[in-house]
Amino acid sequence: MPSTTYVALLGPGLVGRAVLAQLSALPQFRVVAVANSSRMVLSSSSVTADALKTDAAVPLAYGSLADHVSSYPGASAIIDCTASDAPAHWYAAWLARGISVVTPNKKAFAGDAARYAAIRGSARAPTGLSTRKDAGLLFHESTVGAGLPLLCTIKDLVATGDAIESVEGVLSGTLSYLFNEYCAPGNKAGFAAIVETAKSLGYTEPDPRDDLNGLDVARKVVILARAAGLASLTLDDVEVENIVPATLRDVPSADAFLKELPKFDAEFAARKAAAAAKGAVLRYVGRVELATGKATVKVAEAGAGHPLAGLGGADNMVVIKTKRFPRGLVIQGAGAGDAVTAFGVVADALRVHHTHAFEP
């Protein structure tokens, strides 16, 4: 029974540092490696992100990092907090040699279907498809909804024999805020002004078009769909409404985009008015229907009786309709933020530790 789980952390950015801070309060973990995109530090004692600034840092080598973290007499896990595709190419190999993988990185789970299948095939059941007891475990709860219990709920529904009919929701804190504010009673501001306010508050990407194009939401829809059973669904299968006006998609800078966006306020206002005339509000919704495999990401009207109509702030909300929950199982809460994302990652790391701790 291992008393310690040994961890290598990739990507000590905002989320990665929050993960390290939370792990430091848990005595069952020892972080023995930290790496950024080019350097790594390997240690026999606990290591922090600051060590990357010292002479102890050496060029990053994923093979050597895996050798190091798996050399200890206990469970081992690599926590990938990067936004890079590079570590995902190693997941299957790490899992096959018994190293568990925990990550909020969407790349592997919304990307190439063949690579996704290889990763699942290398991970030990029930987190993957391998029957090998010495294979690593795979957890990626925080790839959708930060710390919200979305993927684990979907997987539990499937595992217990329920039939999922659809999964839909507001999956972006940025787009949640934009449409919640824009459609709030009494709001007089145009859509462009709401976007500019959101950017000033730090709610958007440095270039808001990276939020408004819908691709991040589409990736989350693919992840949810695959968890629900549509393992072959790809990003190309998702019908995405890009709400960046076509003529502004190639303007050279975020500032130039924001300067021109007010010219399109009338178009957004017309859609808002059409929804209001039906007693509805606008929401940016990702949806997948399991029977047909149809997946969409678009601006949708939510009537007064729909759970999405009651959203406020920058919350995420997902509605899962199943045979057992025909009216929908609703999960809502903060879907972004360093601390809540780190919570989801660390909770997954604890699942790795507990699984090994209770094995004979």
TrEMBL record:
The active site is at 220 (proton donor). Gene3D superfamilies: Dihydrodipicolinate Reductase, domain 2 (3.30.360.10), NAD(P)-binding Rossmann-like Domain (3.40.50.720). Catalyzes the conversion of L-aspartate-beta-semialdehyde (L-Asa) to L-homoserine (L-Hse), the third step in the biosynthesis of amino acids that derive from aspartate (the aspartate family of amino acids), including methioinine and threonine, the latter of which is a precursor to isoleucine; production of homoserine leads to a branch-point in the pathway as it can either be O-phosphorylated for processing to threonine, or O-acylated for processing to methionine. Pathway: Amino-acid biosynthesis; L-threonine biosynthesis; L-threonine from L-aspartate: step 3/5; Amino-acid biosynthesis; L-methionine biosynthesis via de novo pathway; L-homoserine from L-aspartate: step 3/3. It comes from Allomyces macrogynus (strain ATCC 38327). GO terms for molecular function: homoserine dehydrogenase activity; NADP binding. This is Homoserine dehydrogenase. It holds the Pfam family Homoserine_dh. L-homoserine binds at residue 205. Keywords: Amino-acid biosynthesis, Methionine biosynthesis, NADP, Oxidoreductase, Threonine biosynthesis. Its cofactor is a metal cation. InterPro entries: Asp/hSer_DH_NAD-bd, Bifunc_Aspkin/hSer_DH, HDH_cat, HDH_CS, HDH_short, NAD(P)-bd_dom_sf. NADPH binds at residues 82, 106. Its EC number is 1.1.1.3. Belongs to the homoserine dehydrogenase family. Residues 11-125 form the Aspartate/homoserine dehydrogenase NAD-binding domain. Residues 149-349 form the Homoserine dehydrogenase catalytic domain.
